[in-house]
Amino acid sequence: xxGRNCNxxxxxxxxxxxxxxxSISPASSQQQVSxxxxxxxxxxxxxxxxxxxxxxDSFDQFITKNVEHFAVTxxxxxxxxxxxxxKVLDAELAAAEAGTVRYVVSPDxxxxxxxxxxxxKAVPEKNKKRTILDIKPGTYKEKLTIPMWKPFITFVGNPxxxxxxxxxxxxxxxxxxxxPLGTLASATVAVxxxxxxxxxxxxxxxxxLAKAGQEGGQxxxxxxxxxxxxxxxxxxxxxxxxxxxxxxxxxxxxxxIRGSVDFIFGFGRSLYTDCTIMSVTTEIAVxxxxxxxxxxxxxxxxxxxxxxxxxxxxxxGQIYLGRAWGDSSRVVYSFTDxxxxxxxxxxxxxxxxxxxxxxxxxxxxxxxxxxxxxxxxRIGWARVLDDAQARPFTGSHFVYGNSWILPPAKSNF
Length: 413
What we know:
Blueprint: E1 46-47, H1 56-83, H2 91-98, E2 101-105, H3 116-122, E3 131-135, E4 139-141, E5 144-146, E6 153-156, E7 164-167, E8 189-191, E9 197-199, E10 202-205, E11 222-224, E12 229-232, E13 235-237, E14 243-244, E15 249-253, E16 256-259, E17 261-266, E18 269-273, E19 276-279, E20 284-290, E21 305-309, E22 312-315, E23 318-320, E24 322-324, E25 330-334, E26 337-338, E27 347-348, E28 362-366, E29 382-384, H4 387-390
Parallel strand pairs: 1-29, 2-3, 3-6, 4-7, 5-8, 6-9, 7-10, 8-11, 9-12, 10-13, 11-14, 12-15, 13-16, 14-17, 15-18, 16-19, 17-20, 18-21, 19-22, 20-23, 20-24, 21-25, 22-26, 24-27, 25-28, 28-29
């Protein structure tokens, strides 16, 4: 994310804590910027169709567009399902699934490959078959990239004894050229190909947890740049910037995501269902930093955002639900259990004072529970959604999942 220092001002008159965040950006920029967490005093959020503080026209228009878009796509999927007897998979994916192949990765030499790196190298360029890598239990100290010309790869482990893929680069780690890697290149696993999936696997960045103000402390465990990627029963473990939800359509089911600052961040359009989101820092944690920066008049305005459904949020320190990396950042939590560590104000504005007629931050909550779900104390431009407004965010349709989300592959171990 673009360079960030932070002087967090805690809400409701609590003493100020200072937390300096090192820079993050897809371009590996090391520039830094100051801003406050918490910002202005909390105001009662609007609910239903009412206007948000300082930008009702923009909010109402944006919510209406989401509802209208959902109605249109729902009709399209229904029409395709009827025409194809209920099958709506896109043609490229359907062809790949029909030609599935499997290989075993085992460090003891009793499989097809000893390392995941070797298995990925063996996948042909412009791959057209679903290629399942059955990864035996163990710790794999490997830094992996799935290049964009190798789609349809699947990692499968035993969720009761999952393989652990680990590395320990940070943004400040020096590369072969002697320069810092930057956040993007710090990832333990980078998925640049489309149609990737994983089940029962741990993705871990094992770098020490960055201290407050530590420059170059960002340490990505998993970066997703390809589209139509799905994760089931996986753990994504790290500290600052754990999951770089960089770009594309992504689906997470029954996953554990651990981190400290901005540990789910990026421009992706992603659905997190039944996931556990855990803060590991005793200081200030920020769960999301969604990067959307389109204006609401842009035809692609609704193509980026994070939706969390039936998730559980808990951990250490003081937890913010998110802050705006982009000027039109969008995150929605629905049916989510929030522990007492979630601060009453809920959200941080970063440098965005208020929504305007050209766009604006969109943070919504719908029927959440737990001591941290105190929506009547949220910052003024957060939104409490009604049933119709929440529906576009609360199912696989949010990521157009009817055409590509499949059940997870099962482990042979």
